[in-house]
Design brief:
Blueprint lengths: L6 H11 L3 E5 H15 L4 E6 L6 H10 L2 E4 L2 H9 L7 E4 L5 H9 L3 E4 L2 H11 L5 E6 L21 E2 L3 H11 L3 E5 L10 H13 L8 E3 L17 H15 L6 E4 L3 H4 L3 E12 L4 E5 L8 H5 L5 E3 L7 E7 L7 E9 L6 E4 L20 E6 L2 E6 L4 H5 L8
Parallel strand pairs: 1-17, 2-3, 2-10, 3-4, 4-5, 5-6, 6-7, 6-8, 8-9, 9-10, 12-14
Antiparallel strand pairs: 1-11, 11-12, 11-16, 13-16, 14-15, 17-18
Helix pairs in contact: 2-3, 2-9, 6-7, 8-9
Bound molecules: ligand LLP.
Ligand LLP binds next to α10 and α11.
Length: 403
């Protein structure tokens, strides 16, 4: 079982399935899940994989087999989780900004829902009284995460019910006798500091006594993984120890379950995007390397200024030069500016690492280019889990009319 796929394995996948291609190392996903389970040990901690990071059905089925539950962010993710074989009782739907009908649909499917607005909580009460126990997503007013775009718990964030509206929340709960089973917070992505979770727990523990039906507290996801050598990461052992100690210190009669929703931690490092070099362009400013990809396939560098490690796997020991790696779409799609790489030639394979989370999932067909194929490798065996798009995929839902 390898932590990383080797250059030879990646080259073999590119030969067999072509490029651009997303490759996922299932052994690594398994290791990450076991690392979490090992750290939290305790029965009271439940892991819900945040499906939004990567929803391929084969990946979901594998994660189910590992024993994890799943957290969804849309009704379609709920349906994919069901298709992947998750029982409704293992599916959580943490909604945000959705129309009430989507909440109804999820509840009717037997899925547990975290509601993130007073608006929808009021609707739930008015229409269903106390028929469905639910969770509520709170906004704890904590600034956390790698950058503002992925910070979700601060006092200007759209997510959750602001904690300062607790009175209004309790009024609705009381009026309809709604059974609140779970309190949820998620403060952001790329959180490296366990103290953020402790802060969240402190906010929640002030509120918990108001909720007699509570069975769990959901601390969301956001565990930071390494995107580059020496990158600070969250220490899940230390996190587990801090969180469990904090719960022991606060708890009186009720022993609540503790839920987490990791996305990146589970799949980021397991993923690779393999591209091939179309051309090299020398200019007075820089040497561009253009690959057969772009922000249509991996948008994180352009959207979040995210750093992704890149390597030239077909010429790993060539003389190192600085290259600006760009895509082939008709936008400024710079993956990296002046990145030192072993000499790059036409046809070389450039690999982008940490492409498992929010890679394929945020891909589009911009410029009418095809989304890549997806391949999974488990115990040395590579299998296609999604074909590359074809022209038919681009036109499938179009209705051509003569005007
Ligand atoms: N739970 C909730 C309610 C979330 O909103 C998210 C992520 C997660 C869990 C999982 O967070 P993770 O463990 O993956 O950090 N596209 C951005 C990240 C946005 C995350 C959105 N919510 C990126 O590529 O950095």
């Amino acid at each position: 079982m390898s932590e990383q796929l080797t250059n030879e394995e990646l080259i073999q996948v590119a030969r067999e399935f072509g490029t651009p291609v997303y490759v996922y190392n299932a052994d690594k996903i398994e290791q990450q899940y076991h690392k979490l389970r090992g750290a939290f040990g305790s029965e009271r901690v439940k892991i819900f994989y945040a499906a939004k990071a990567l929803t391929n059905l084969s990946v979901l089925r594998f994660i189910k087999k590992l024993g994890a539950n799943v957290d969804c962010s849309s009704i379609n993710e709920v349906k994919l989780a069901l298709q992947a074989g998750f029982e409704p009782s293992r599916i959580l739907y943490t909604s945000n900004g959705i129309h009430f009908t989507e909440i109804e649909e999820a509840l009717q499917l037997g899925v547990f829902v975290n509601i993130d607005s007073l608006f929808n909580l009021q609707k739930l009460g008015a229409q269903y009284g106390n028929k469905y126990p639910v969770g509520v997503r709170l906004r704890p007013n904590i600034m956390a995460g790698g950058n503002l775009k992925i910070s979700t718990g601060h006092d200007k964030s759209k997510f959750g019910i602001p904690v300062e509206q607790l009175d209004q929340l309790l009024e609705i709960v009381k009026k309809y006798n709604i059974r609140i089973r779970n309190l949820h917070i998620h403060t952001g992505s790329d959180i490296k500091d366990a103290a953020v979770f402790v802060k969240g727990i402190e906010v929640l523990f002030d509120i918990i006594p108001h909720f007699p039906y509570l069975q769990s507290v959901d601390l969301g996801g956001g565990f930071k993984v390494a995107y580059k050598e020496g990158d600070p990461v969250i220490d899940v052992e230390a996190l587990a120890q801090k969180v469990l100690t904090e719960f022991d210190a606060h708890e009186t009669a009720r022993r609540l379950e503790i839920w987490f929703e990791p996305g990146k931690f589970m799949v980021s490092e397991a993923g690779y995007l393999i591209t091939s070099v179309n051309l090299i362009k020398e200019t007075s400013a820089t040497t561009f390397v253009s690959v057969n990809s772009g922000f249509n396939h991996l948008i994180r560098p352009m959207f979040y200024d995210a750093y992704h490690r890149i390597s030239n796997i077909t010429n790993p020991s060539g003389p190192v030069k600085a290259y600006s790696v760009v895509g082939n779409i008709c936008e400024t799609d710079t993956f990296a500016w002046e990145r030192p790489l072993p000499e790059v030639r036409e046809g070389d394979l450039l690999v982008f690492y940490n492409a498992g989370a929010y890679g394929y999932e945020m891909a589009s067909t911009f410029n009418s280019r095809f989304r890549p194929a997806e391949v999974i490798v488990y115990k040395g065996n590579a299998q296609l889990i999604r074909k590359r798009d074809t022209l038919d995929d681009l036109t499938r839902n179009q209705v051509v009319v003569d005007l």
